[in-house]
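During the no-cost extension, the postdoctoral fellow (Dr. R.K.) reprocessed legacy sequence entries with the updated structure-token encoder. One reprocessed record is reproduced below for audit purposes.
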Amino acid sequence: MVSAVGQRVGSRWVNVPAAGPCRCPAYRHGTGIGMRSGRVWPRTALDATQAAFEQLSDGAAPVVLDCRGLPGVPQRPVPLAELRMLLLDDGTPRPVRDAVWRVLVVKARQDGPTWRLIAVGMAVPGLRRVATLFAGNWRGEVADRDAELLAGFLDRLYTVDLDRPRVAGRLIDAAERAVKAALRRATDRVEACWVEPDEDRVVAGLRAAGSAPPQRPWDHPDWVLLRAVAAGVIGEEEWTLITRTRLERCSVQSVAALLGVDAVLAASWRRRAELHVVAAIRSGELEHVPMPALPRTRNQTARARVMRGQRGLASTVLPALIPAGA
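Re-encoded structure tokens follow.
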């Protein structure tokens, strides 16, 4: 006997089936099917849905859909796994898919949480395809992204027009819109301010009402600067100088001492580097640069700079980076 429990999915509460204890914190994201004893619970709502779908479709008594009377499908009760493969087959005409999906949606609306789970499980391949579209710009937890997908799908399940074509496609479109809306909400909570670097302020600052994953091009300053290093816009020493003085509020004098240069010269060097970063941001040069792993900690970078004996930086490298008359 499968019971229903209320679980939070993204920003909403939905009823989902529960058939056993949870073994993973991902349970809070809203898929409440228990795993067989001894197995580890999946980490995201989509993974949990797939695992639960497999439980329902496998075993000695798999759940089936009575397809008698539906065109283009076997005229018998069809196990879920077989039915999903049929719907995913490129050779299956769209009217056939829509006919099956209309039955699935009606059962999800009328026959309780098990069939709601089955409807989502049938759509998992399409939902995973949508999830990959957001892999590059979703800064939060993958589990949260998948939960938004699931919530958007389930919300639309109750209102989708069954008289129109593309029943499954429109459900998956709703899931995609839910993730986009989550991205917009995160962006709305983050106000980016770009200022001229000679105003002695942070090049890119953030004022946020709460914790939120910054989105491109309004990224966190640390991430912007790391991508600038990866793109060759600034070097590691310039990254250290900007992050230590602008973001960590260290004095120019203290960082200049670590780098082995004069404080006035370091300030000019910093301004020049910031101008390069601002120009790269405005041109879009950093937008698609992947964020690299941090090569060293900030202190390690500064110490390595000193230990390499590059105290002559002020007389060799820096003059080429500083505008005339600076």
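Residues 192-321 form one domain. The chain has two domains: 3-186, 192-321. The remaining legacy entries will be reprocessed before the final report is submitted.
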